[in-house]
Amino acid sequence: MDGGVLLAVAPFLGLYAGRVASFSVAVLVTWALNRTFTFSDRRTSNRIQELALYVGSQSFGALTNMAVYAAAIFLSDWMYAYPLAALALGSAAGLVVNYTAAHFVVFRGSLASTKAKPIPKT
Predict the structure, then answer these.
(1) Is the whole-model pTM more than 0.70?
(2) Which residues of the chain have pLDDT under 70?
(3) CA–CA distances in Å: residue 105 to residues 14, 58, 102
């Protein structure tokens, strides 16, 4: 998804602005997928708030992602010629940050119900 959007818009927006556009689309799609599949048992009932938290929390991963992408295409003629390779590096660098933020910050709707209940005293 991300790479396809990047390749589609880069001729019009350039590699940097194209990357911002492709990232924005990717965030919306991954929120929907995470909500539906990965964290379906932890999603909240307030979709707007959840999406806002998701967008905000993913900013940390985005900064890492964009910095690695930009550095790669700035420092390497090969990466500049093949921006999907730089995209892959940036995506890998942001993966851990993004998943961690989604797990611990955003999708915690039913987290309270997963805590162990105390054993009743007899």
Answers:
(1) no
(2) 110-120, 122
(3) 33, 10, 6
